[in-house]
Amino acid sequence: MAQDTSLVESETVVEPAVEHRTRDPRRPKRFLFLRNGKALTGIGILLFFGVLAVVGPWIAPYDPNQVSVDLLQPPSWTHWLGTDHTGRDILSQIVVGTRGVLVVGLIAGVSATVLGVVVGVTAGFVGGAGDETLSALSNVFLVIPQLPLIIIIAGQLPTAGGVTVALVIGATGWAWGARVMRAQTLSLRKRDFVEAARANGERTWRLVLAEVLPNLTAIIAAGFVGTVTFAVMSQVTLAFIGITPVSDWNWGTILFWAQNNLALQRGAWWWFVPAGLCIALLGMALTLVNFGIDEFVNPRLRSTGMNARVLRRRRIRPRIGFTPVLRTPPGAGPRAAAAGPTRKERS
Amino acid sequence: MRFAVRRTIFYLITAWAAVTINFLIPRLMPGDPVTALMGRMQGRIDSNAEESIRVLFGLDTSSSIWQQYVDYWGLLLRGDLGLSFTFFPTPVAEIVQQALPWTIGLVGIATIIAFVLGTSIGVAIGWRRGTWADALLPITTFFSAVPYFWLGLIAITVFSVTLGWFPSSGSYDRGMVPAWSWEFVGSVIYYGFLPALTVVLSSIAGWILGMRNMVVTVSSEDYVTVAHAKGLPERTVMVGYAARNAILPQVSNFALSLGFVVGGTLIMEMVFSYQGIGYTLFQAVNTQDYPLMQGCFLVITLAVLGANIIADFVYAALDPRARQEG
Testing the interface with A: which of B23, B56, B150 to mutate, by most A Cβ within 10 A? Predict the structure, then answer.
């Protein structure tokens, strides 16, 4: 790995590294990921939607399918987000629909990640002809446009329910993860600790499970989050163009009804804006978690967590080519150190 | 040379895989929707066309699967994709042929604009890391998280319903006859502006983020520091040293994310009723027009493949290492 050109750009006291806070060296490291503001925000939003998905049907003010006489009403106290063309409550549709979105995202994410890990790690670990075949397979799947593929598969299925769609998305969306996983496995395969385990006579499956996989955790997590994002988008898109049954509520279904009943032309913004914002919020939360993982893995990106004002206040002059490194004066305590920007952890 | 041969083989395999997937999907599906449709079309399809649909969808149970596969290739090589049910009796190939230029025009131009613009913005933001420029990041995050089609809906609401600046659907003024006149081209640009704008807005975020992160990573490399130390002008270092190296993964990403971008823009066509291949696919799905669906998928895949080949050779031209290692 290339080394950072570390230079102390700050005018705070220069002090040899982190010696003074070695009281419990494991604790701060473990929560490093959660100290990242982006990741924390993302996880917070995800938790919110998660809770909504579980309790949604109970807390929804109305039955989402219940027709009423309030046709196409703008938001009011009785209907917080207004009603659609048959008087159904839109807030209830969104709340109830959360579960559908998250379940499909999760199933598709898990299945695609498992496939990706199996194919990628096998390819990287086995090498030779097996590797060639598996890489060619995942490259083919990378080049074939996924959304049209999902559309024609789902379009020809007689009943494309949520789980089916999730599995179709999983079956077509694993290739990217496999490619990343293979590259990383290749670089791990020849490391000393793996060689040592091999020399000890460990079996192959144990080498993979105990030596290689734990070192792939961050990448697997990032791949999983990325796949969930893709799955959510695909599923919402499929619902929007009316491939999945319109009776299953998810955010795409709401947009489907809005589009087909001329919500745009009628100016019924409450019909399609909230659902879209929910999708965007969920997508953003997932992206933020992925940023968090990225910065956790790649310390060079971490200073981006600070904005210009914080930098100025800490009297750090951002300069290209140099990673700002802050060293805390002795006795300043771990709090100040924790707030420090890009202290270099072990790299 | 080795590089070119390797890539050509890969693309041939991919093309073969796409055709085979297209062959297998209708045969693996439970139920038999096509037979039902054929029943409805009884007597209206001439025997020749019926034969080709049978071959395309594997209704010909008397012959072995291998024989079906050979027949299928035979049809494809003659450019016969069957007849469309929706636009009966127009051949699928003809419909696709009419729709394809619109998609290539819209998607191609919008994607290139997004790539060039996004990459330049990414360089600028990455170079000024830790300043006000970082404030742009949350905005781009938001845009990358918004589904394409929803952004299209919002654009229609704002620009065509509320403000009335642009038409909300179609690809040219229906009162005009397609011709290579200034008037007609102007109309096409006018109608295409809003779809193109939404495609650019929603796909640009990915390019900005990718380029920014690469510039941040590259700019702590030794050669950039050396360039600084030599006292080269800031601009020269930024463009000639940092950006030049940072753009390489961007180009290879371009090839890989193309399928994703194309998928998104196809949905955009559906929102704008833009008469390209995405809209055709949409109509086919809604009317359960299986031959048209299959045809659209095949053509989309082959088009993406073609774009990938171009991106590959651009990459090879930019990076000598790729040419050598292959």
Answer: B150
Lowest mean pLDDT among A35-44, B38-47, B103-112: B38-47
**What CA–CA distances, in Å, run from B307 to A337, B24, B255?**
50, 25, 7
Domain covering B92-319 assigned CATH 3.40.30.10 in the classification: no
- Residue A250 pairs in a beta bridge with none
- Contact residues on chain B for A311, CB-CB shorter than 8 A: 130-131
Hey, are the CB atoms on B220 and A323 less than 8 Å from each other?
yes
Q: pLDDT per residue over B278-308, tens digit each?
A: 888 888 887 777 778 888 888 888 888 888 8
Chain B residue with the nearest C-alpha to that of A291: B141
A318 touches chain B (CB under 8 A): yes
Q: Give the count of domains, chain A.
A: 2
| Residues A36 and A110 placed together within one structural domain of the fold | yes
Residue ranges of alpha helices (H) inside chain B are 2-28, 33-40, 47-57, 65-77, 92-127, 136-145, 148-155, 182-218, 222-229, 234-236, 244-272, 277-286, 290-318, 320-325
| A57 part of contact set with chain B, CB < 8 Å | no
What single letter denotes the amino acid at residue B54?
A: R
**In angstroms, rounded to a whole number, what is the distance separating the alpha carbons of residues B63 and B22?**
19
Please report residues of B whose CB lies closer than 8 A to that of A157. 29-30
Does B13 contact A140 at a Cβ distance shorter than 8 Å?
yes
What is the average per-residue pLDDT within A148-162?
Answer: 77
Q: Does A337 touch chain B (CB under 8 A)?
A: no
A71 assigned to some structural domain: yes
State mean pLDDT over A316-334.
54
- Whether the pLDDT of residue A16 is over 70: the answer is no
Evaluate whether B167 touches B191 at the Cβ level (below 8 Å). Answer: yes
* Domain chopping of chain B, boundaries: 2-77, 92-319
- Closest B-chain CA to A280: B146
Nearest Cβ partner for B225 among A259, A318, A321: A321
ipTM for the complex shown: 0.79
Verify that A337 and A212 share a domain, yes or no: no
Residue A302 domain-assigned (yes or no): no
Average pLDDT, chain A: 74
Q: How far is A137 from chain B (nearest CA, A)?
A: 9
Give mean pLDDT, residues A286-299: 78
Q: According to the model, what pLDDT value does residue A111 have?
A: 92
* Cβ–Cβ contact A202 with B under 8 A: no
Contact between chains at B17 and A140 (C-beta distance less than 8 A): yes
Check CB contact under 8 Å for A279 and B221: no
Give the position of tokens 């009316």.
A242
Highest mean pLDDT among A295-304, B258-267, B272-281: B272-281
Question: Per the CB < 8 Å rule, is B142 touching A136?
Answer: no
Q: Are strands A6-7 and A323-324 parallel, antiparallel or unpaired?
A: parallel
Asked if pLDDT for residue B267 goes beyond 50, the answer is yes
Same-domain status, A205 and A292: yes
Same domain, A11 and A136: no
Domain shared by A162 and A224, yes or no: yes
Give the chain A residue nearest B11 (alpha carbons): A140
- pLDDT tier, B151 (very low <50, low <70, confident <90, very high otherwise): confident
Q: Which domain holds residue A98?
A: 26-296
- Domain CATH number, residue A233: 1.10.3720.10
Residue A163 belongs to what H/E stretch? helix A162-172
With CB atoms and an 8 Å threshold, state whether B149 touches A265. Answer: no
State how far the Cα of B183 lies from the Cα of B171, in Å rounded to an integer. 14
